[in-house]
Amino acid sequence: MSASSTSAARAPRCVTFENGLRAVFVPCEAESVAFGLFVASGSRHEPKGVGGISHLIEHMLFKGTKSRGPADITRAIEGRGGNVNACTSEEGTCYFAHLPSECLRDAVDILADMYLNATIPDDEFDREKKVVIEEIRMYSDEPDAVAMENLQRNLFPGSPLGLPVAGTPKTLAPLVPERLRRYISSCYRPENTVAVLAGAFDDARAESLVRGALGTFRAGRRVARAVEVPPCELRPVHEQTVRKDVSQAQLALGYRTFGIGDSRKYAASVLDAVLGRGMMSRLFQELREKRGLSYDISSRMQFFSDAGMFSITAGLDAASKDVALATIDRELDRVRERQVPAAELKRTKEFLVGNFRLSHEKVTSKLFYYGHTMLSFGRLVSPREQIDGIRSVTAADVQGAARAMFRPGCRSVSWVLPREV
Predict the structure, then answer these.
(1) In the predicted model, is pLDDT for residue 6 greater than 70?
(2) Would you give the distance in Å from CA 315 to the centre of its chain?
(3) What number of other Cβ atoms are within 10 A of residue 18's Cβ?
(4) What's the pLDDT tens digit per position in 301-337?
(5) Predicted confidence band at 237 (pLDDT cuts at 50, 70, 90)?
(6) Which domains are present in the chain?
(7) 381: exposed, middle or buried (C-beta count within 10 Å: 0-12, 13-18, 19+)?
(8) Closest to 164 (Cα-Cα) out of 187, 136, 128
(9) 344 is catalytic
(10) Which of 29, 31, 58, 149 is catalytic?
């Protein structure tokens, strides 16, 4: 019987290897496997003055190992129809490969080799640092990215959470290969890493492959890591405006909120969906469908370990920006002052549950779900726990979250406006 035909009946499990690395195995019916390494090393862990080093390391791990050149890594994955990629956030870095199920060994071997044996060659480093600086400049030309970056900085003043994940040309300029190698040795440690495998695989073979590749290495001398900055005090309402050569006003509005371990996280997620997730959300209906003030408006609830950020983004006609902002504020007041009606609450929760279930059919979605929840909670969090958490939210819970989040005087607004307005 094939691995794909038996995977659906097996439950996810977590194994902690002797060196402290945790490996999560998520069997499911599929034609592929997704393998990823999640490292608890992101931009908020960086020492002062080296902002962007985590993101630059993410790029450099693709630039060769002791036995593979950059082209060898790409060819081994893409040559089999798969893909390999990585991403860095405030609190972690992830490397992942998605391949046909018979290529499981390739996925494990290649990512483990990148993780353990990256050489950070000087010539590749100089070129890639220029590439990252161009990436930063590219985002600085995108008004929505500028508005969000300024909003996050204003919501988390004096904290690494308020700094750009990619760093700046100024913070990247002094970095050299040896500095990256030392930083890798301090952060890319077994106890700091979660390996996740999702898809169609044989349990015994998969565990043997992952254990053989990653279960025995020992990190070198521990280098002192940056001390995480505690959450800063909320600041008074702040509004910032940047003018660029654009034809549309870009708005990013936000509030500081609580972290992912807070019991109100499910209520906050439902509140987010009520306001700005999907075409039936209040902001979409009010600003686009009824008033024609925006083509695209949405909200997002983002959780960090000890803090969070609720944001609303919209592209607007600059002449209507004050009307749009007042309309948004009225919707926030309304959800704070009156409970969400039963029918709307039920519809919103089913939207969230259905969206989660549909996305969870993808092996890469399972990979990210278990990787992120393991880094956040240190344990397996089942999809059922998430679904039950959403379904348990009451109208009073949503209103309580709104009152806790949307406090007068704690709002920040970031604009990118046309130069001539």
Answers:
(1) no
(2) 23
(3) 10
(4) 999 998 999 999 999 999 999 999 999 999 999 999 9
(5) low
(6) 3-214 (3.30.830.10), 238-418 (3.30.830.10)
(7) middle
(8) 136
(9) no
(10) 58
